[in-house]
C-alpha cells in the first residue's frame, strides 16, 4: 500500500497538535478531561463520543485546524455541565486533535478544501449491475484509496439484476480486481445477496461508501445500520444547525463491530488524481514491474523493452487496468 505522504502544512499541524496533547496530559489530574471520538460534525458543532459511550456536544477552537468525523480528540468538560447527569446537557470544548491516519477532504465551492472524514480504514467503492459499472471510475477510486492509505473494498450491488446478457461481464470485472488482491463482493438489497459477507468485510475498521448516485449506497448503509444507530445519527445531526444540510457527517457503529462514516458529502466524493506519482502508486499490480522497462522514463505505451507491455502479452496484467492507467496519465497531461 502507498505510504501516506504528508504535506508541510499537515506536518506542522500535527506537531502543533501533539504539543497541545502533551500540555493536556500534564493536566490530566483534572478529571474533566477525556479522550473521545468525533461522531458527528456540522459547521461549528461537534458531537464527541467518550470511551463510556456518552455523546457530548462540543465546541472547538479554530486554531486546531480541520476536525472531521472519525477524529480522535481530547475534550474538556465545561465545569458547570459536570453537575448535569444528562449527557445531552453536557457541553465541552475540544482541546486537541490526535495524530490521524488520513483525512478525506473535499474541494467544494471556492477553493478551500473541506474535511469530511478522518481515520478511514476502508473505502467501499460501490457500483451496480444496472447502471453498468464503469471500470475507469472504479480505478480512479482505487487510486484515490491507495493514496489515502486505506484498504479498498469493491461492491457490485443490484446482483438481482444479473441476467444472461450481463453475467459474463460482471464476473469478469470481479475477477480482474480479485486477481490483483482486492476484495470484491456481489450484493443485492432486493434479494438479500452477499449481506453477511459485506457485514464481515466491515468488522474491525471504519469504512466509507463512495460511488455514483443511484448504485445503492444509501440503501446499503440503511440495511447495515440498526434503527437505533440511525436515530442517534439524526439526533447528532440535528444538534448542529443544519438537519438537512449535506455537510453533516456521522459515524455509526455496526452491530457486528466496525463503523461507517456517512453523509451525502462523503458518498459523492469524487476522486481527483492530481499527479503522476499518485497514479503510479495507485495501480498496485504495476509495482512488481517497476524498474524493469528499458527506458527509465517509459510511458508503457509503445516503447520497446517495456516490462508492462511484455506482461500484458503474457497475460500477467489486465488490459483493462493498463488502459485505465494510460488514460489517467493522458488525462493528467491534458
Ligand atoms: P445511492 O444514490 O447510491 O445512495 O443509491 P440509493 O440507495 O438511493 O438507490 C438507488 C436506487 O436503486 C433506489 O431506487 C433503490 O431502491 C435501488 N436499489 C438499491 N439497491 C438495490 C438492489 O440491490 N437491487 C435493485 N434492483 N435495486 C436496488
Ligand atoms: Zn514500460
What does the main sheet amount to?
5 strands, mixed, barrel
CATH homologous superfamily name of the largest domain? P-loop containing nucleotide triphosphate hydrolases
Query: Beta-sheet strand percentage?
Result: 15-25%
What is the share of helical residues? 25-40%
CATH architecture of the largest domain, please?
3-Layer(aba) Sandwich
Radius of gyration: 22 Å
Taking all residues together, what is the mean pLDDT? 85
How far apart, in Å, are the first and last alpha carbons? 28 Å
Domain tally: 3
Pick out the low-confidence regions: 18-27, 240-246
**Number of DSSP helical runs:** 10
Bound compounds, each kind once, are: guanosine-5'-diphosphate, zinc ion
The CATH class of the largest domain: Alpha Beta
Order of helices and strands: HEEEEEEEEHEHEHEHHEEHHHH
CATH topology call of the largest domain = Rossmann fold
Could you say which structural class the secondary elements and strand pairing correspond to? alpha/beta
Number of strands: 13
The geometry reads as: globular
Amino acid at each position: 500500500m502507498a505510504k501516506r505522504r504528508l504535506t508541510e502544512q499537515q506536518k506542522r499541524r500535527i506537531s502543533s497538535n501533539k504539543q497541545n496533547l502533551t500540555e493536556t496530559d500534564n493536566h490530566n489530574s483534572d478529571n474533566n478531561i477525556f479522550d473521545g471520538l468525533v461522531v458527528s460534525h456540522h459547521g461549528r458543532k461537534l458531537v464527541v463520543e467518550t470511551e463510556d459511550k456518552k455523546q457530548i456536544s462540543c465546541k472547538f477552537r479554530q486554531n486546531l485546524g480541520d476536525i472531521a468525523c472519525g477524529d480522535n480528540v481530547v475534550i474538556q468538560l465545561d465545569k458547570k455541565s459536570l453537575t448535569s447527569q444528562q449527557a445531552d446537557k453536557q457541553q465541552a470544548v475540544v482541546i486537541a486533535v490526535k495524530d490521524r491516519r488520513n483525512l478525506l477532504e473535499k474541494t467544494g465551492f471556492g477553493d478551500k478544501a473541506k474535511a469530511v472524514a478522518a481515520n478511514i480504514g476502508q473505502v467501499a467503492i460501490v457500483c451496480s449491475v444496472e447502471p453498468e459499472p464503469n471500470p475507469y471510475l472504479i480505478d480512479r477510486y482505487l487510486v484515490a484509496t491507495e493514496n489515502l492509505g486505506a484498504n479498498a473494498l469493491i461492491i457490485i450491488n443490484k446482483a438481482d439484476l444479473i441476467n444472461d446478457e450481463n453475467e459474463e461481464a460482471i464476473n469478469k470485472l470481479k475477477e480482474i480486481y480479485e486477481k490483483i488482491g482486492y476484495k470484491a463482493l456481489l450484493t443485492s438489497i432486493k434479494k438479500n445477496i452477499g449481506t453477511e459477507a459485506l457485514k464481515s468485510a466491515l468488522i474491525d475498521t471504519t469504512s466509507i461508501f463512495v460511488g455514483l448516485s443511484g448504485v445503492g449506497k444509501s440503501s446499503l448503509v440503511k440495511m447495515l445500520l440498526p434503527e437505533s444507530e440511525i436515530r442517534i445519527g439524526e439526533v447528532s445531526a440535528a444538534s448542529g444547525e443544519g438537519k438537512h444540510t449535506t455537510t453533516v457527517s456521522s459515524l455509526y457503529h455496526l452491530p457486528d463491530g466496525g463503523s461507517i462514516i456517512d453523509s451525502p458529502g462523503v458518498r459523492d466524493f469524487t476522486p481527483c488524481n492530481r499527479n503522476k506519482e499518485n497514479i503510479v502508486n495507485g495501480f498496485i499490480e504495476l509495482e512488481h514491474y517497476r524498474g524493469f522497462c528499458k527506458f527509465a522514463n517509459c510511458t508503457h505505451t509503445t516503447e520497446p523493452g517495456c516490462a508492462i507491455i511484455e506482461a500484458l502479452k503474457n497475460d500477467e496484467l489486465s488490459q483493462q487496468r493498463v488502459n485505465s492507467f494510460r488514460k489517467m496519465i493522458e488525462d493528467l497531461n491534458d
